[in-house]
Amino acid sequence: MTTARVMVLFLLAAAVALAAAGCSRPASTGPDSMGAGEQTIRQIGSTTMLPLAEKWRSAFNAKHPAVSIAVSGGGSGTGIRALISKTAEIADSSRDIRPEEVQQAQSAGISPVSSAVALDGVAVIVSPANPLKQISMKTLSDIYTGDLTDWGAAGAPGLGAIQLVSRDSASGTFEVFKEKVVTLDGTDKSRDYAPQALKQTSNEAVLTLVGQTKNAIGYVGLGYVNKSVKVLAVAPMKGGASIMPDEATVSDGTYPIARKLYCITNGQPTGVLKEYVDWIKGPEGQEIVKQLGFVPVGQ
Amino acid sequence: MMRRKWEWLIERLIQLAGVLAIVFVVLIFAFLLKDALPTFREHSLRELFAGQRWSPTSEPAKVGMVPLLLGSLYVTFGALVISVPLGLATAVFIAEVAPARLREALKPTVELLAAIPSVVFGFLGLLLVGPLLARWLHLPVAQFAALGSLMLALMAIPTIVSVSEDAIRAVPRALRDSSLALGATHWQTISRVVLPAARSGIVAALLLGFGRAVGETMTVLMVTGNAAVIPMGLRGFWRPVETMTATIAAEMGETAYGTPHYHALFAIGLILFVITFMTSTIADLAIRRTPGAAR
């Protein structure tokens, strides 16, 4: 065969292969595809919930091998967008869905229903070299808006300038911290993060940076805290003693920087999706929640 | 008879591929323009290009791109300062000085550098190089512009080496031989005859390296700190900055379609497109002017 013919045949074969791949798509998109044979759940979103989602997936798969669950991160905003564009069945979100997102969902024919699957505290962390043990909400907020720039004014003289570590805006953790701390629990929406806050792309990145930088302060999901950083107790805005984040204080609401973690679905979950979400909320799923340092959602 | 039909078919397919490339570029430009336009309508050019605060989510939205433009500029400039001398020297070495066996080994190795994914460079910078440099140089934080420059330089060097080396090789033997015949040393020949003759190709190489650096996203997102502050003087290299590319990458995930923030990010994208497009065009024109290359 001449090389020209070979090339043309190859191109034709490639075109056919592409078309075939394209044709087999509809079978695996959307909940209406969950027939008897193929069951796929795409779970996308919060990086905070990612370790949870991974463990849920493998534990659930062990019991229900027929169900195929694909888990990925990208941030709460990314997950919600995937739900709206029908490229995910579950959006993991570490924040409430926003009104404009609800609107967008509805105009795309999706009605988002949030199921709370866990509680999470957002821990305020500093380097172990930092002598501070606690901080008031107002001071913390002023630090993050850039009103307070020196550790001396915040109660830890000798450390010099404060190095702010934060998350990127696709993160649910970023949102929650902004709502509860920066805007003082929503009371002053004009307050915003200072521009010199270093935007990191994940909880681990924040952890690493704060652990290695003596004058840094940051925030991470409680489940991520390890020995490389020190957790500060936070005194709520209304006053009173400062509270360390742990299962008890997040559960009963005394720790002020806490949030619900959600699995958002299109409408109330049905079929295999319902089985999965119910399992997550059930004793086995919640045991995994505890194991990973999050707080089980109450009855 | 059959052969002519095949010929015709192949030619049409190749033409199609070429035209498609142009169509894609035009479509991308149109897409960027369409979604960036609302920003240009709502905010004056002064606000965009002289504004010093980038905070599109606050009320009122602040879309000053100066910190981002300077962030990209600092990181890219630093990358060029490192990669241009190194890249050119390597190219000269490979093309003029290295014995054949060393050349065979060196070329693929440099090209291997180009094959490493940018996220790996980001990873190395974040966990290894950054903390090391911060400790040695007593820097306040292990994420800063110069770190981005360093990792970007590693990515730009293969491009610069490749294109420069081609340009140097393209200088006709006759020029070299005449120079040597007139009594010039090897280095005199290289520095005064070969390099000036290869000038346009080398300029093209530098511009392409620049384009590579300015468009890089993942690495700078991980190592430059992403703080949209205006870098000041030389010190600014050793402090966190935020590049245009990292801004888009970090903020796009959270932006709702059609919001002013969304349009502002597209405005940044448009500017990036224009910069890299102009760079590539100038580089292309420069390549065409290489003397000795029959183009």
Task: Explain what you see.
- The complex is a heterodimer of chains A (299) and B (295).
- Chain A is of the alpha/beta class and 299 residues long.
- Helices cover 36% and strands 22% of the residues of chain A.
- Chain A has helices at 3-23, 50-63, 76-84, 99-107, 137-145, 172-182, 203-212, 247-251, 271-281, 283-291, and strands at residues 39-45, 67-74, 90-93, 112-126, 134-136, 163-167, 198-200, 216-221, 230-235, 258-266.
- In chain A, strands 1, 2, 3, 4, 5, 6, 7, 8, 9 and 10 form a ten-stranded mixed β-sheet that branches.
- Chain A is globular, with a radius of gyration of 23 Å.
- The N and C termini of chain A lie far apart (72 Å).
- Chain B is mainly α and 295 residues long.
- Chain B has helices spanning 2-42, 45-50, 66-97, 100-115, 118-136, 145-169, 173-181, 186-197, 199-215, 218-223, 244-252, 260-288, and strands at 54-55, 62-63.
- In chain B, α4 crosses α6 and α9 (199-215) packs antiparallel against α12.
- The longest helix of chain B has 41 residues, at 2-42.
- Chain B is globular, with a radius of gyration of 23 Å.
- In chain B, 41% of the residues are buried.
- The mean pLDDT of chain B is 90.
- Chain A binds chain B through residues 2, 4-5, 7-8, 11, 74-75, 77-78, 81, 98, 100-101, 104, 161, 163, 168-171, 189-190, 192, 195-201, 205, 208-209, 212-213, 215-216, and chain B through 3, 6-7, 9-10, 13, 53-55, 57-59, 67, 126-127, 131, 140-143, 221-222, 225-229, 240, 242, 250-257, 259.
